[in-house]
Amino acid sequence: MGSSSTRRYQSFVAIQSEAAIRALASRYPYDAEGKSLRGNPEEIAEELKAEAQERLKVAGVDVLEARLTHLAYAPEIAQAMLRRQQALAVVAARRLIVEAAVGMVREALEGLEEAGLSLDEERKAAMVNNLMVALVSEAQAQPVVNVGTLYT
Which pTM was predicted? Predict the structure, then answer.
């Protein structure tokens, strides 16, 4: 093979390899719950090998191994994906806070009942509301002095 043929051969292999990667990337998300490029590296490597082999067999190339060695978002979407990850983390943290607060409110109501203090439904609802606001709020709780009653 001459140097011109070698360059064409190398160019063909490079183009077909990139096409195989693009085809694979179009089928799977970067990172997700199910099958993804990042989450299933061994399975993805096998599919990439098969995809590359299919494209390169016409040139007599036998693909022994194919792997993704570097995965990154394009710069134009990296910021959006970072914001998405941060938002998911905030939602998960808030869910945990709310679940803990519900448990604490439940324990408070049970504790009052065990102590023989019973509240009517309206007072129970007000207490639940106040406790949930105090427990879930990101602001520091402010003292409130009750100078009257809600009930007449």
Answer: 0.49
